[in-house]
Amino acid sequence: MNSEKIVFSFFIVLALTLNFGFFMGDIDDFTHHNIYELFVAIVVNLIAMGLKLGDRTQVGAVLLSTSLVANLQLLAAAMIWAYVTQISASGLSADNASVIISLSGGALIANVISVVMLVSETLMSRR
Questions:
Q1: Which residues constitute the domain of residue 11?
Q2: pLDDT, the chain, mean
Q3: Of 14, 20, 29, 75, which sits most exposed with the smallest number of CB within 10 A?
Q4: pLDDT of residue 2
Q5: Residues in the chain, pLDDT under 50
Q6: Which residues contact residue 11 at a Cβ distance below 8 angstroms, ignoring those fewer than 6 apart?
Q7: Rounded CA gap, 114 and 93, in Å?
Q8: Of 50, 34, 23, whose CA–CA distance to 107 is shortest?
Q9: Rounded-to-integer distance, Cα 21 and Cα 66, Å
Q10: Three-state DSSP class for residue 33
Q11: How many structural domains are present in the chain?
């Protein structure tokens, strides 16, 4: 087995599962969504993106673009969360929570596409 591919696959799947864990729950109730899980999802997505930087294939380019999309949306969600809890006087409301969770849902879709592409590439390389 190739240990580099194992680490690569591990971080892609971990990014998906952490994002899914943060996303699950009522969209307007932030008590169902752990902010530390969002932070860990961002860190793991950034690591997964770093691992994708060395791949110069067409599939690698698409995998990198899915990581960029996921990171952009997760970072936007974190910035909105930081703004509404630390700067804004309104605090974290149901409306703000739904925007944060919706952004993480978009990142979740990007992570799903990444995992599907990883699995399909693995299946194609077997033949």
A1: 3-126
A2: 90
A3: 29
A4: 83
A5: none
A6: 44, 47, 48, 51
A7: 32
A8: 23
A9: 19
A10: coil
A11: 1
